Amino acid sequence: MSNPMAPTSILKPVETFVDEPSDLELSGGSISFANDNEELKDEAIDSTNPTGEITLDAHSDSDDDDYDDDEDKGSAGKGSSTEDEPQIDAKEERAVVASKVLVAFVLLVSAGLLAFFSYYYTRTEEETEFQSKFRDYALEIIRSSSNNAGNSFSVLETFSRTITSLALFSNHSFPFITLPDFEVRAHDFQSVSGAEEVAFAPFVHDKDREDWEAYTVNNQQWIQQGLDYEYMVSIMGRMVHDEEEHRNNGQTPSTIAPGTNMEGFSVLNKAKPIQPFIWKHAPFTHKAIPEQDKGPLVPVWQTFPAPRNSYVVNHNLRSTPEFSALFQMSINNRTTVLSDIVDNFKLFGTAQTISVDPKSVVLQPICQGLHDTASGIVGFLIVIKKWQNYFENVLYNGAEPVIVVLRNSCGKAFTYQLVGPQAVFLGEGDLHDIKYTHMRISSPFAHRNVQPECDFTIDVYPTQTMEETYLTNMPVYVTMVVILVFVFTTLVFILYDFFVSKRQRKTMASANATNRIVSNLFPKAVRDRLIQEMGTTDADNMSVVSGNSGQFRNPNASKKRASTAFLNISLHGSSHGKKALKGANSSEALRGGGGTSEDIFGSKPIAELFPETTIMFADMVGFTAWSSIREPTHVFLLLETVYHAFDTIAKRRRVFKVETIGDCYVAVCGLPMPRKDHAVVMCRFASECLSKMDIQVKNLEAQLGPDTGDLSIRVGLHSGPVTAGVLRGEKGRFQLFGDTMNTASRMESTGMRGRIQISRETAALIKTAGKENWITEREEKVHAKGKGELQTFWMVIRGGSDNDGASVVASAADPLEGDSMHQVNDDMECAPLNGDGSISARNTFVNRFSSKILEVAAAAKKRRLVEWNTEILGKLLKQIVVRRAARRIKKKQLGLYGTTSTKEPAVDISFDQVPPSGDAIEEVREVISLPHFDPKNFAKSVHPDSIDMPEAVLIQLNAFISRVADLYQGNPFHNFEHASHVTMSVTKLMSRIVNPLQVEAPARETDKLLHDHTFGITSDPLTQFACVLSALIHDADHPGVSNSVLVKEKDPLALKYKDKSVAEQNSVDLAWSILMSHEYQDLRETIYTSEDEFQRFRQILVNTVLATDIMDKELGAQRKARWDKAFRAGSVSVSRSEHSSTVHSSCADEVQCDVNRKATIVLEHLIQASDVAHTMQHWHVYKKWNERLFCEVYQSYLDGRIEADPSVGWYKGEIGFFDFYIIPLAKKLETCGVFGVSSMEYLGYAEANRREWQDKGESIVQEYLSKFKTDETT
């Protein structure tokens, strides 16, 4: 028999993944956590389970004593009240048998019915899905092919305007025009549109013919230039092809001969002389003969690809019937013309290959002028394009194949098969499967003009392959499963009945015997108390693993024991009976403090030494600063998303997640299942986590706002022995102890952003595994706390990239600590920026190629910021619509978006087209009237998520924000990223407005309390929308210098706005003019539907944007006077005469006027605080934006726009800015009493940043200056 007091081994794991995080402790080099929700299985999971994960805490429900007790309780009420086993008479037996037969019959009938309906429902669902998916494909094909054609026509029209612009700019007259770099422009157009050939053919009148023929002979050098360009493109293409083949497949460079394209045709040619006269094909012989027609003639001039034999030049296309009809149609309609399907041999082609795919000619007229629509046509751009190009890239990768039949009214038909993004020409005629004729979806092909009587139509049909994808044998399988389930259920029912009856008899006999024994040992009162305590002990033990050491199936078989130990361990190490008998002694030991764990739990501790493990610490860099300006839900959304991705990787790679410590992720490989390749596996896991982190934060930036995409992780790995065990007590805890834990933590803390640092021990294991190319030795040694100097290694990240899209660049001499930003990003703060705040290619340390990567990454970041701002403002738009409905505005005035399909009448908002009178500064109001609160209608508001905003409104909102983003110039500070940062602060403050629900009041009064407490701001989403929008536009087109500089320089903007709030008024006017354009009418109709709403929207926008001009003394004095009047009792109000003509106030109701005045000044201070929110946020956020502002001002100094060197007074200036503006502003947020904890948070950060700047500011300014000068000289 096994000894119940023997130590328990935990050599092998339970291979079950732990999803939920647990409580974590870090002390003395150990990690511990508790998880109360795991289940203990009766049998061990096979050690070959591919998941390789571990169950931390397990709870047993398989104890034999528990099972017996439950059976006793389950049968207690079924027998007699005596201690003898109950007897069932014959009548009850027959009733039980009859009920069993009835149950079996019901099961059989239910099985048949459910099987039938399961088959019918599943088959119907498949057919519906098939038809729905095909319809989606067909509509997408029709829409996208039409869009492809439209885009091609638009690009072609732009190309024609380029030729016209050249003629106007060069003062050359048609037809004597040769477009410089025609081959480059045509090649770009070809890449965009998919055209096979492009040609330029001018009109040549009879009077110009001789001059033209002489001109073409003297200017035919474009042919050789085109051939040379093709040769260069061919060489570059071959090099790229060789490099990709070698990198992807390890193949040797291709044997393609120099000067040939991928198809093997020669592109290295010498231009041949052209025909010196305009010619046409001779009848029958097709030889070139002089054109006798007086014209006007349309000779071919420049072509791409360049002609291999130059006979095509000066070919009069008007002599060809096919082209003649197209020219006439284009001249009549003055627009792009699309031809019928054209025979390959009737084209003017210069290509070396002949394709059998259907083609058409696209004819674009070239006008003599750019803007005069009545100007004459002086030539044509002629494009030959395969129809296949219109159907490419319209479906996504993996899409099932569909058939597209292109037919026209001339009786021609051509069939294509679309497989994902590829379109394959199958042949001439309608080749679709006739059994799918009834599913045809047809649509006219969207085009401009087509040859008469040859309109095109697109017919889309499914394929057999697509049908087989959706119409499967699943209905049959489902039916069979249903039948088998019912058969199995019936068998289980019969078997269960047999064992229950047998078990009941045994249980009753055992219960009676036990009762007699207990009754003989204890009096009734003591017996009842023991039974009660036994139940309490059992209930408590459900929160931890319970059982006994006898659960080990084979204690002598080490392999079996190792794989089942975590499942079958006993945290208390004794049977329930033993625990009950020792409970009193254990309690006394706990109270006296003299008992050991063996005395307390009845067994020895459960622990094991794992000699070969690798531990990973991964810490988020920049997380603390990032989280300090986010809502708690956003912080947890980021952590849950990233850590869930890490958990998924860990499950796949059989890595054991230990715990998360704040934003630090801890994992181990090599326990509880020992493995020799633990270091290699952990390196792969760490590398994949690093890549996944970059992907996740990029995807989340559109949802969580600016700087999310800049987050990364710093990873440290160390290998060595570790002690692991279960800490028994209130909650079972799995812990790791030992020096390996401490060293792994030091590897992370001394590492760098976006890199994996490994110890010498781990590096040795990697080398032993033959992976020495994975690592590179760190140039300098690191100093680790408690370890001294250590030689470490970097793991080489293949294809890794930092958050800016460029290769990871880190200085080994400057390790990042805590939440410091990446050194590379810090170095780039002073670099010239694009309009969205991204890094410009000028004056950076990167080369031209790296700059291109940065531009691409910056554009992607700009798109993410646009999407994020769209989401923020889109939510507020929904609230506007909902609140408008609550006020019972008539539908014809509302445009409310419900579920009805009836098109609503358009809203008349023509009043918004009246331009504002005077400058924006003249519109500043002392009091902006907000709507009154109507509790009855307010209660009828629906949730904003319950309505669907029209797609047109969202598209226009996105387009408007994109236009605003484009307004921002390339300033280091005043850029689109800064505007988004201000928007985020405004949104956060709006969401943190104090909720008076904390005040005890009836439910119907809480909305009124919220309205009154926040001066009506929270009950008017239009006010919130206008305030957020003003944050987005407040620095649009900012010139990068202060208003005073613009005034001093007598800038045109300063003259325009009379030297008052120049940049701010300009921002308002630019954004307003965009919003008022016709293309955003749907958006405006959603924002406001009445003149009152329009005026309130305009007033809030003007007041809040101009409030960001904190240097205008007059506006500042007015705001201070309004603040004193609103929030300081007994203060002297500024008389009306003391206000300039730019401030207006008119209130009939003084009480309501006072509330509106408070709302107005709160909104102004809200955006003022948000505009400088970086000073009231985490130190790293403040330092980042302060450095950008310094760079912007210092650049102005270097450009000679300001006289004083800003670096001289920057340190003291920041202290004064904190003392006289930032901290008083933060206190005002607290004084107004509507922002809750945010006001205290902002004030706390402002005071902390002020103290840290006072301590470090002088050295930081020198650091700024050094970085700036380094960027300038690099």
TrEMBL record:
Question: What are the entry keywords?
Answer: Lyase, Membrane, Nucleotide-binding, Receptor, Transmembrane, Transmembrane helix
InterPro entries the UniProt entry points to: A/G_cyclase, Cyclic_nucleotide_synthase, Nucleotide_cyclase, PDEase_catalytic_dom, PDEase_catalytic_dom_sf
Q: Does the keyword Membrane apply?
A: yes
Q: Which GO terms describe its molecular function?
A: 3',5'-cyclic-nucleotide phosphodiesterase activity; adenylate cyclase activity; guanylate cyclase activity; nucleotide binding; peptide receptor activity
- Annotated Guanylate cyclase domain ranges read 614-748
GO cellular component, as recorded: plasma membrane
Name the Pfam families for this protein. Answer: Guanylate_cyc (PF00211), PDEase_I (PF00233)
Q: What's the chief localization of this chain? A: membrane
Location of region: Disordered: 28-90
Q: Where is the composition biased (Acidic residues)?
A: 62-72
Q: Give the PROSITE patterns listed for this entry.
A: GUANYLATE_CYCLASE_2, PDEASE_I_2
Taking every annotated instance into account, which residue ranges of this chain make up the domain PDEase? 869-1110
Give the UniProt record's GO annotations in the biological process aspect. Answer: intracellular signal transduction; receptor guanylyl cyclase signaling pathway
Location of the protein in the cell: Membrane
| PANTHER family named in the record | GUANYLATE CYCLASE, GUANYLYL CYCLASE
This chain's protein is named Receptor-type guanylate cyclase gcy
Species, as recorded: Seminavis robusta
